[in-house]
Design brief:
This protein has 443 residues and is α+β, with helices and mostly antiparallel strands. The longest helix has 28 residues, at 144-171. It has helices spanning 18-27, 122-126, 144-171, 202-212, 223-230, 241-244, 254-259, 266-269, 284-290, 372-393, 436-442, and strands at residues 58-59, 72-76, 84-87, 103-107, 112-117, 133-135, 138-141, 176-182, 188-194, 215-220, 300-303, 309-316, 321-326, 337-342, 346-348, 352-354. The radius of gyration is 36 Å and the shape is elongated. A hairpin with a 7-residue loop joins strand 2 (72-76) and strand 3 (84-87). The strands form 3 sheets. The protein has a 7-stranded mixed β-sheet with strand order 1-6-3-2-5-4-7, with no helix packed on it. It contains 11 helices and 16 strands. The protein folds into 5 domains: 7-30 and 252-292, no CATH class; 40-142, no CATH class; 148-227, GMP Synthetase, Chain A, domain 3 (2-Layer Sandwich); 294-374, SH3 type barrels, CATH 2.30.30; 399-443, no CATH class. 25% of the residues lie in helices and 18% in strands. Helix 3 (144-171) packs across helix 4 (202-212).
């Protein structure tokens, strides 16, 4: 084993190269929320949710009383989008009842849109601040005319997408148009795009407003928002979580992948959006609970019997064991080795110890304690012996690499006399001179 092996650096806490570390840093960048769902500059107590096109919808002010659970509804404006809480006490009146799955017309931060009523969660309701509630945002229940208008606006949005692509080519603007959306009142067109860095689209907006005769809004979104809008399938073979059920992004980090014993290869822990898997956060709380009774990686650990010092290389909380690396010590004639110890032999007083019992046969968990190097050598020895036996038993198909001559179409069993060598290097040679005895027999 390499005695000069490199351990995880304390500042980065990762056993990766500098290039891989920079790539992992890029993967770890998280967006606070869906940028196509909320504009934080409009969110202020008592202010309208949108200065233009938001109707009379306002955020709750600090002077307003905290609404009751029966007086609010939870809605979302797109599939797996951000959940909004609207104050609508009229739903308790006969004829105004709302249930899960109903489609309504409401004012959003973009303007008038169709929204879907969700099942309210009391726990989520208690976590909301007063400013998160919106009043005067409900318009009416959606009818057949609203659905028909939504279909017509989708066709207009496709035509507007072709217009902006054409104008971008004429102006030489490098951007990727992801989505175009019209508000339900047909007063504003919203263009979602992605680009590297900032884009000067002042001339673009003028030409779009002239051709479309609408108010234009440009929104630059990141890779996660782009993936959510476009959709797709993840490595698991199912629809993406952000498009299917995630209302907000879960903050994920490289430490989560490391605690769950994932490979730190960027290609294996990143999704199609180019960021870390969102599902890393699903089981992170469970792993944090399981790792409470284990030492962290790089922690010094001592063998109580020999007082030999090692370092924790890997913690397997699911398998209930740890991997310890003992460096080489020429003075005591100790070779560098790695060993796996079960959780039952770990003990912490002032520092971590491996407390092996005197009689190893008393503890069944100690069957797993064996040097990894010796185990690898044993496997290699078995593979080499198996390969040698297979070479002895296997008979060569042809001796001296001789191949059969090309077969005659008339008599396939007949070998031509003037054939020498391989089939590929076939050449016609003159017949060999036969001896006197063979010539007499032929005569």
């Amino acid at each position: 084993m390499d005695n000069n092996r490199r351990f995880m650096k304390p500042d980065r806490n990762l056993d990766v190269s500098e290039e891989e570390f920079k790539t992992l840093q890029e993967l770890e960048r998280n967006d606070d929320g869906f940028k196509d769902e909320e504009n934080s500059k409009y969110k202020k107590a008592g202010s309208p949710i949108a200065p233009l096109g938001g109707g009379d919808a306002l955020y709750f002010d600090y002077t307003d009383e905290y609404p009751a659970f029966e007086d609010v509804i939870a809605i979302q404006f797109q599939q797996a989008g951000k959940v909004y809480w609207y104050y609508y006490p009229e739903q308790k009146n006969p004829g105004n009842e709302l249930k899960q799955g109903d489609i309504i017309v409401a004012y959003s931060e973009r303007g008038m849109e169709l929204a879907k009523v969700l099942n309210k969660s009391s726990d989520d309701f208690k976590r909301q601040n007063k400013i998160n509630f919106i009043k005067n945002g409900f318009v009416r229940k959606a009818d057949a005319a609203d659905f028909e208008r939504e279909k017509q606006l989708e066709v207009k949005a496709e035509n507007a997408k072709e217009v902006i692509i054409r104008i971008n080519k004429e102006l030489g603007i490098k951007m990727k148009v992801i989505k175009v959306k019209y508000t339900l009142d047909d007063t504003k067109a919203i263009f979602y795009f992605s680009a590297n860095g900032r884009v000067d689209f002042r001339e673009l907006i003028k030409r779009l407003a002239y051709e479309l005769k609408r108010r234009i809004e440009m929104r630059q979104i990141g890779v996660r928002d782009t993936t959510k809008i476009m959709g797709g399938l993840g490595p698991c073979g199912r629809a993406l979580c952000c498009q299917k059920h995630m209302h907000n992004f879960i903050p994920v980090s490289i430490k989560m992948a490391k605690d769950q014993n994932f490979s730190l290869n960027p290609n294996k822990i990143s999704g199609i959006c180019g960021r870390l898997f969102c599902c890393l956060g699903y089981e992170n709380a469970t792993y944090e609970e399981l790792r409470k009774d284990y030492p962290e990686e790089e922690t010094a650990i001592f063998d109580r019997s020999s007082n030999r010092r090692g370092f924790v290389k890997k913690v397997n909380a699911i398998g209930k064991n740890i991997t310890v690396f003992f460096p080489e010590n020429p003075e005591k004639k100790e070779k560098a080795e790695e060993k796996i110890f079960p959780r039952s032999v770990l003990e912490f007083t002032d520092r971590w110890y491996v407390n092996l019992p005197q009689n190893d046969s008393d503890d069944k968990d100690l069957d797993n304690v064996m040097p990894i190097v010796a185990k690898e050598k044993e496997v290699l020895r078995e593979e080499s012996s198996g390969a040698a036996n297979s070479e002895k038993t296997e008979k060569p198909q042809y001796q001296n690499n001789r191949k059969f001559p090309p077969k005659d179409s008339g008599n396939p069993n007949k070998k031509p006399q003037n054939w020498h060598g391989n089939k590929k290097n076939f050449k016609k040679f003159p017949p060999r001179k036969e001896g006197k005895e063979n010539q007499d027999k032929n005569q």
